[in-house]
Design brief:
CATH class: Alpha Beta
CATH architecture: 3-Layer(aba) Sandwich
CATH superfamily: von Willebrand factor, type A domain
Helix content: 25-40%
Number of domains: 1
Order of helices and strands: HEEEHEEEEEHEEHEHEEEEHHEH
Number of helices: 8
Distance between the termini: 26 Å
Radius of gyration: 19 Å
Largest sheet: 8 strands, mixed
Strand content: 15-25%
Length: 325
């Protein structure tokens, strides 16, 4: 079923299993001290932040699940499904439990927009309960795909239309990252006495940032990665969308050598991204085979990615979230 097998991704990042072979990995200093294993409860929630490029280039067409559409619309489709799944996983007989805080920021036209502002009651962060209580229309997303044997299949999913597509203007990525830094810093401060699973920030873009420099982007990225809870430092993911859906991309590179030699922007995003905790590696191996050695360091990054690769990038944890509650 499309919904149950394709969409269980966001929450599955939490509490990933330890490597079965007890392999030791070389990890950046900021994540050496933790296993990223804090349980998710209403008293110790976690935070997801999505930063979405809404610049004019997102008007370009792409193909997702056998259908053509503009990149802005296809990206919104994936984020809406993600938000729907978060709500469903937090729904119990007594109502929605606030296991997660949510933030979706769009950046374009030299500005940043809180795309969940209608549900945030004047705040920058939306709880699960607040989003569940918001009045939103429902939309149906269709999926068409062909099995290896040539048989064609069709399925659909009905979710809340939590955010809408938009594409215009330039790409003020630095402003988006600064906005995320401010929000996450405040959230970490509010939970400094709690052992919360660290916030995760997903920056999704299809082009280079406007009106800034590599040095400024690296500086704000480093500030983001230094934010932390008692369970570890913030995990910062960068996802670059490819214009050509047929072109193979790079997921979770282990070194800059995996990127195009002359691609300066790819190497910039590599340096901006977090090194992933070793407990995530077995699940990444299911997405892209890797040869694990003592020096293996995988980056929270996708470059020249298809929009569908976003699901793979986010779905790096186990299918078990039994320690929520």
């Amino acid at each position: 079923m499309f919904f149950s097998k394709t969409v269980l991704f966001i929450l599955n990042i939490i509490l990933p299993p330890q490597p079965a072979n007890n392999t030791k990995f070389m990890i950046e200093p900021e994540i050496l001290h933790t296993e990223y294993s804090a349980p998710i409860t209403r008293k110790t929630p976690s935070l997801f932040v999505f930063l979405l490029d809404r610049s004019a280039s997102m008007n370009e067409e792409t193909v997702v699940d056998g259908q053509k559409g503009r990149k802005s619309a296809m990206l919104v489709r994936i984020i809406n499904i993600a938000l729907e799944e978060i709500l469903l996983r937090c729904k119990y007989a007594d109502g929605f439990r606030n296991y997660f805080d949510l933030c979706v920021i769009g950046y374009n036209d030299n500005s940043c927009t809180n795309l969940l502002d209608y549900a945030c009651e004047g705040k920058e962060i939306c709880t699960v309960g607040m989003l569940a209580s918001a009045s939103v229309k429902r939309v149906v997303y269709e999926r068409r795909f062909q099995r290896p044997d040539g048989e064609r299949h069709f399925s659909s999913i009905r979710v809340g239309n939590y955010i809408q597509p938009h594409a215009s203007g330039n790409t003020p990525m630095q402003a988006g990252l600064q906005k995320a830094y401010t929000i996450v810093k405040k959230w970490c401060k509010a939970h400094e006495k709690d052992r919360c699973f660290p916030p995760m920030i997903f920056n999704i873009t299809d082009g280079e940032a406007s009106g800034t420099t590599e040095e400024k982007l690296l500086k704000i990225a480093d500030k983001i990665k230094k934010l932390s809870t008692a369970d570890g430092h913030v995990l910062f993911f960068n996802m670059h969308l490819n214009k050509n859906p047929e072109c193979p991309g790079t997921l979770f590179p282990a070194s800059e050598e995996e990127l195009e030699k002359e691609d300066r922007y790819a190497k910039l995003l590599y340096r901006m991204s977090s090194t992933l905790p070793r407990s995530f590696y077995p699940d990444i191996n299911n997405i892209r085979p890797i040869r694990l050695t003592d020096s293996t360091c995988l980056k929270a990054m996708g470059y020249n990615s298809k929009i569908t690769d976003i699901l793979k990038i986010i779905n790096i944890g186990s299918l078990s979230v039994t320690k929520i509650g």
